[in-house]
Amino acid sequence: MNMDFERRLAIPAEIKEQYPLTGKVNNIVEQTRAEIKAVFEGRSDKLLLIIGPCSADREDSVIDYISRLVPVYEKVKEKILIVPRIYTNKPRTTGDGYKGMLHQPDPNGKPDMIKGIIATRHLHMRAVAETGFVCADEMLYPENYQYLDDILGYVAVGARSVEDQQHRLTASGIEVPVGMKNPTSGDYAVMLNAISAAQHQHTFIYRGWEVHSEGNEHCHAILRGSISKHGNYVQNYHYEDLSRLYDAYAERNLKNPAVIIDTNHANSGKNPFEQPRIIKDVLHSSNHNEHIKKLVKGFMVESYIEDGCQKVGEDVYGKSITDPCLGWEKTERLIYDIAEKL
User: Fold this and answer.
1) Long-range pairs for 154-162: beta carbons < 8 A, 24 or more residues apart
2) Residues lower than pLDDT 70 in the chain
3) Which are the contacts of 78, defined by CB distance < 8 A and separation ≥ 6?
4) Is residue 237 classed exposed, middle or buried when 0-12, 13-18 and 19+ CB atoms within 10 A define those classes?
5) Where are the beta strands (DSSP E) in 272-327?
6) Greatest CA span in the chain, whole angstroms?
7) DSSP H or E stretch at residue 232
8) Phi/psi of residue 24, each to 5°?
9) I want to staple 120 with a disulfide (CB 3.0 to 4.6 A). Which of 76, 83, 88, 287 is the partner?
């Protein structure tokens, strides 16, 4: 093999022993998980808002951002359930570029996986302990999920991973809701097949073990737009797209039909300032159609302290080094606007 095996990494049980959760944090995690599941089961009519930076690039600014959500949440929590995004590993279309805190806890430094594993766990733990928010992360690498499986409230599977068998099987054994994004082609069948697979029981190999999963009845769709064969962005948040998804769900025997609308990526053409308009459009569709209203459980928004994005090394505090994000002032206004429309 043309690879250098540098060192053995600590297994999840060892990391958890070194960085255990307190009883208080455990209680917050369990309570929040129950609230999120209630939304997907239709027992709660709160709107789920999965919001935060495109990538969690540095601990201080991410905690600063999440801390700013606390007083806002107090004013809207009767209508909105906020789950901050702490995305600690990032897929790269070409393989180049910053791959997230898991790879590089210092964006300007060299990759260091063990420091990255510790940094990601520490950041998620700190978020719960200091703000009371239980957060979301993307499952880019299924074998790494156990490093965080006791601290997360929500998990996303990305557009480039949704067709992968190991992601689907691992999702079937995850305790929290898992969102399956439509692939970059936009094919609903791929996404719905992934949901179906994750909702079923399986026997498979995971981290060298033969494991048995019980199925995840809270696995659901995320619509993030797609790319045409000519390379153009194609949106899929419109009324007709949501109606089509409702019909596609109705044709399948899936539990808890639900969708989260990703308001950035191809849906916005990677223009983060379009996100408020997209949310208003979807809320209008929901108010017009009871089936859509029942299906749409919330939104995924890319937001940070500063508008836009920057290159690695520019070091503007609170500004994304991956996809451009909506800045804090616009984000705060957006959350209040959503609450007023519910």
Assistant:
1) 154/36, 154/50, 154/83, 154/178, 154/179, 155/179, 156/50, 156/181, 156/222, 156/300, 157/181, 157/194, 158/91, 159/183, 159/184, 159/224, 159/265, 160/91, 160/93, 160/184, 161/91, 162/190, 162/191, 162/194
2) 92-96
3) 46
4) buried
5) 296-302
6) 58
7) none
8) -65, -45
9) 88
In single-letter form, the type of residue at position 287 comes to N
Q: Going from the N-terminus, what domains does the chain have, and what CATH number goes with each?
A: 14-341 (3.20.20.70)
SS3 330: helix
Strand, helix or coil for residue 259: strand
Amino acid occupying residue 301: V
For helices 239-250 and 188-199, angle between their N-to-C axes, nearest 10 degrees: 40
- The whole-model pTM stands at 0.96
* Cα–Cα distances in angstroms (integers) from residue 287 to residues 12, 67, 293, 294, 338, in the given order: 45, 32, 7, 10, 13
Q: What is the rounded distance in angstroms from the CA atom of residue 213 to the CA atom of residue 218? A: 14
Please name which of 342, 305, 300, 311 lies closest in space to residue 325, comparing C-alpha atoms. 305
Query: In the structure encoding, which two tokens stand for residue 297, read together?
Result: 């459980």
